[in-house]
Every structure is written in C-alpha cells, then in structure tokens.
Specification:
By secondary structure, this protein is of the alpha+beta class. The chain contains seven helices and 15 strands.
C-alpha cells in the first residue's frame, strides 16, 4: 500500500511538471539555430559582465532636513596669503551677535607671494578641477568616492631656502565661531576691541604700502576632510590699486557625509564675488581690504554612499538571461517564418501557376476523351 501511495504521489507530481522534457529524437538542430544561440550566449555574457561592474559601483544619495543644531560652534579654516607685510595687516571675525573673535587662532607667517614652478602646477591643476566642477556638478560625487582616500589638496611646500625678501603675509589656522552670520576681515592694521565696536590701528601704515592682492589656498567650514575641493581654493586676485576692496558673500550649508571610506560632519558653501575701488569722491565708500561675509543655511544635507544589494543584482541578472533567451527565440522563429514564406512556398501551399496550368490541361484532355463515348452510348440505346 505504501508503494502504491508513493507511486500515486510521484505521478501527481509528474503531472504538475511545468517543464516537460522532450526526447532528443524529436529535437531538430539547425545551423541558424546554432548561430542565434551563439549570439545569445555572447550577449548574455557581455551584459552579465557589465551588470557586475554596475553592482560594484556606488552612488550618492542626498537627503535634506532642517538643521536643529544651533548651539554648536562653527569652525572656519583659513589659509590666505596677502601681498603685504605681516605687521601691516590684521584679521578678525565679527558676527551678528557683536561677538568679536580675534586672530588668536590664526597664525601670521612672512612668506614670498610668488609661487614656485611646482606650486604653479598645483594651482593650474586645481583651477582646472574647479572649472570642471562648475560645468559638471556630478563630478563632486567622484571626488567624494575617490579623493577622500587621502589625496593631498593643500599647497605643496616651497623647496629650498627663500632668496627673495619676505614681502607677503600668510594668515592660516582655524577659529570657532557661533553658528550665525558673520564677517571675516583682513585689512590694514592690527585689530583692537572696545565696548562700542572694533577697529584696526592703521595710522602707522603708509597708504602707498596698501596692496590687497591675495591668494586663497584654502577656505572651508567645519571639519577638514582631505580630498574635498572647496569653491575658493586656489583663488588668485591681483590688483594695482591701493584702495581695492574684495568681498566674498558665502552661504554655508551643513553637510553630513557618510561613505564607505569616511563619516564626518562638514559644511559646503556657495560663494558670490565682488570687487571695487574705494573712491569717496565718486560715492564708492568703504574700507580697503578682504571681507568674507558668511551666513549659515537652515537646511542640512546628508550625503550617503549607497551600494546595490545582492538580491537586486541577482534579479537583474536573471532578467538579462531570461529576456535575451526569450527575445532571441522569438526573433529566430520570426526569421524562420519569413524565410519559409519567401523561399519555401511548397510547404505553405502557395498558389503556383505552372502546376495549376498543367493540371487544367490534363482535365481538359480527359473531358475531350470522355465526350464521344457518351455520344456513342446514346446512339446504341
């Protein structure tokens, strides 16, 4: 009884088989079918390799939310070289809360304003990357995934001892400020703070020594991440007027970066530049110097590096194999049908005038032979 029940169950399972096997004696192979199969297998292999490359690649997902962190401090990283001596210039930051941040976190270093050939190559390379980033914004994702591995983006140091006089001043370092709008000043004289505001002691600096030609090697907000290129990096401004004012209007956007290489909280920013000559007689008022006015955005951007899951890769791979197999099968059947219609009319029973004409002549001859016999029979009767 157990054997009978097993046989019934096995026969029931066989009836449910959705993939019946065809005996090899009933299968007919052809050269065209082999050619189509070869093309199909080649396409499957090629697309599978491409799909594997897509599976290995990653992409950046951007999410936007309201920035609720107002109590933390904002870090400003500065590396600016001014074509004036260090005793003649000073830097400070003043925010909307009238909180003055002196240059205690910044260092003044006497340097040469002109770059070495190696430094010029670095500057041209950075200019090229900046121009490409303005045209192709998607290149920023490539920088996130590749340059974050630690590629150096800082100005290479000067080789050898300087032979020229140190007539420029490099202001570099970082300071922490409140997360409100503020203004970074670099102008003539050292800054001083008093209850009614702030001022710069410029009385002892001659007007002929004013020269605010400058180079911004690095300016960023938040944590310093190697590999990220900021909009003002490698900016060079040359002026021949002693009363030149340079203004940079910056909007800072908090950014949380999470990739497979690094996870950090930093800030991106956009900038608008303006420069003008101070001429009080013509109505152009102001103070000569470099002014970086920044403001923080209320939105926070989260950048997450994502990867295709394994199950999705397998599903897409199965879709490629099944789609190519079904499509090539239909194309092979269609091509075979068209070939039979054009070249094999006998198999399809198409009208052939020559054979029909021969059959019609045979029927006429047969009728001609039968008609006299009928007449003779009638006469005998």
């Amino acid at each position: 009884m157990r054997r009978l029940s097993r046989k019934k169950a096995l026969s029931l399972v066989k009836e449910l088989d959705a993939f019946p096997k065809v005996s090899e004696s009933y299968v007919e192979t052809s050269a065209s079918g082999g050619t189509v199969s070869l093309i199909a297998f080649s396409a499957m292999a090629l697309l599978a390799v491409f799909e594997f490359f897509v599976y290995q690649d990653t992409w950046m997902k951007y999410e936007y939310a309201v920035d609720k962190d107002f109590s933390s401090k904002l870090r400003i990283n500065v590396d600016i070289t001014v074509a004036m001596k260090c005793q003649h210039v000073g830097a400070d930051i003043l925010d909307l809360a009238e909180t003055m941040i002196t240059s205690s976190g910044l260092q003044y270093e006497s340097v040469i304003f002109e770059l070495t050939p190696q430094q010029r190559v670095w500057q041209r390379t950075l200019h090229l990357i900046q121009s490409r980033l303005r045209e192709e914004h998607a290149l920023q994702e490539v920088l996130y995934k590749t340059l974050l591995k630690g590629a150096p983006t800082a100005l290479p140091p000067r080789e050898g001892a300087p032979s020229e006089p140190l007539s420029a001043c490099r202001i570099h370092g970082h300071v922490y400020v409140n997360k409100v709008a503020g203004n970074l000043h670099i102008t003539v004289g050292k800054p001083i703070h008093h209850p009614q505001g702030h001022a710069h002691i410029a009385a002892f600096v001659s007007h002929e020594s004013y020269n605010f030609s400058h180079r911004i090697d690095h300016l960023s907000f938040g944590e310093v991440i190697p590999g990220i290129i900021n909009p003002l990096d490698s900016t060079l401004k040359i002026t021949f007027n002693n009363n030149q004012m340079f203004q940079y209007f910056i909007t800072v956007v908090p950014t949380r970066l999470s990739t497979y290489k690094i996870s950090a909280d930093t800030h991106q920013f956009s900038v608008t530049e303006r420069e003008r000559v101070i001429n009080h007689t013509a109505g152009s008022h102001g103070v000569s110097g470099i002014f970086v006015k920044y403001d923080t955005s209320s939105l926070m951007v989260t950048v997450i590096e994502q990867h295709m899951p394994l199950w999705q890769f397998l599903v897409r791979l199965c879709g490629i194999v099944g789609g190519i197999f079904s499509t090539t099968g239909m194309l092979h059947s269609l091509v075979g049908f068209c070939f039979d219609v054009i070249c094999c009319r006998l198999k399809l029973g198409v009208y052939r005038p020559r054979e029909d004409e021969q059959l019609h002549n045979q029927m006429n001859n047969l009728n001609n032979h039968q008609t006299p016999l009928l007449a003779e029979n009638a006469a005998y009767e």
